[in-house]
Amino acid sequence: MTQPVSIPSLHIDVRSAQLEDVKPLLALEEKAFTGDRLSRRSFRRAITSLGSVLLVAVGTEGLLGYALLHLRQGTHLARLYSLAVAPEARGLGVAKTLIQACEKQAIKKGKNLLRLEVSDVNLNALSLYRKMGYQEFGHYDAYYEDQTDAIRMQKVLRYSADEQISRPLSWLAQGTPFTCGPASLQMALSALHPEYQATPNDELEIWREATTIFMTSGHGGCHPMGLALAAQKRGLSAEVWLSEEGPLFVDSVRNALKKEVIARVHSRFAEQCESSSLPVHYSVMPLEQLISAFDSGALAIILISTFRMDGKKSPHWVVMSGYNENCILVHDPDYEAKDDTQNPLDCQYVPIARSEFEKMSRFGQSRLQATLVLQT
């Protein structure tokens, strides 16, 4: 739908981009940027993808600018990936109009947090974002092709939330499809023990120590007690909260031998926790208690189901990295650089609505909930 906006001496229409816009978009990209340019394929993907919104600002003289918005599935996060204004249209309100249109689109898509990156030397853009209510929350050295730094900014949409509470937490991508638990533990170790060096070898070693050996298919996943024991071995104090006492991850296992092995591994982990005085609470950790532990300096590794994020019913470990009045923030180690719609920054401080988080943190037919609370 076209959104007409009147500005003195200039009329702007903002609409969704069409495939016939690709050629003028490429010409604008060439004029607007000296590096980090989007390709023809990127523009075509943005126009056809359900996970992106590409808006164009059009005047009587043609294309004035565009804004590309990426939507993080299963979360309330939107990201302003790219914004460009034709040199001849700068200073006429095109950028502000596009940003306002992006905010409306983000809200329409159910998102309530909009993030962006901007070069620290782009003073005009920084000034505009600040005037529009965006706040700085991160800085990245040599982020762009020309080696300039990036400032991360964000704005809460629709509601006025309390101040975000978060923890400086280094992010790590899991090195394999089955090591989300070890990568999450390495993030916690790096934050709580700054001298700890996260290495690919230790990631695999943690997996070897913590794995259930079997899953319904593929490689074994990490058992919460196994991860807690690995954390304790590396100098952290650990507690486990489990919603059930029996062997985990056996709901969909049909093979009798697999069931038996999973049960034996579970029993052995339980014995090791008892002998090492590692507390295991067979109950659900209330969200408010989780937040209280975070406020006291602890970090939590939480088992979630990824169904709301990628449509797959897989157990997955993430690290709680903050919260606000409406959301829980997590560091997600699952990152795969498939195309330019994905960025490691999108895996950090991912906002998940509290109501959604409580649904996501239940896995399988038994609605298993598992949380590890770690501290020094």
Question: How does this model look, in words?
Answer:
- The protein is α+β, with helices and mostly antiparallel strands and 376 residues long.
- The chain has two domains: 3-158, Gcn5-related N-acetyltransferase (GNAT) (Aminopeptidase), CATH 3.40.630.30; 180-375, Cathepsin B, Chain A (Alpha-Beta Complex).
- It has helices spanning 22-32, 40-48, 94-108, 123-131, 180-192, 200-210, 224-233, 256-275, 287-295, 307-310, 354-360, and strands spanning 3-7, 10-16, 52-59, 62-71, 77-85, 113-119, 135-140, 150-156, 165-166, 237-242, 280-281, 299-305, 315-323, 327-331, 350-353, 370-375.
- Strands 1-2-3-4-5-6-8-7 form an eight-stranded mixed beta sheet, sandwiched between helices.
- A hairpin with a 2-residue loop joins strand 3 and strand 4 (62-71).
- Helix 5 (180-192) crosses helix 6 (200-210) and helix 6 crosses helix 7.
- Keywords: Acyltransferase, Membrane, Ribonucleoprotein, Ribosomal protein, Transferase, Transmembrane, Transmembrane helix.
- GO terms for molecular function: acyltransferase activity, transferring groups other than amino-acyl groups.
- It comes from Marinomonas pollencensis.
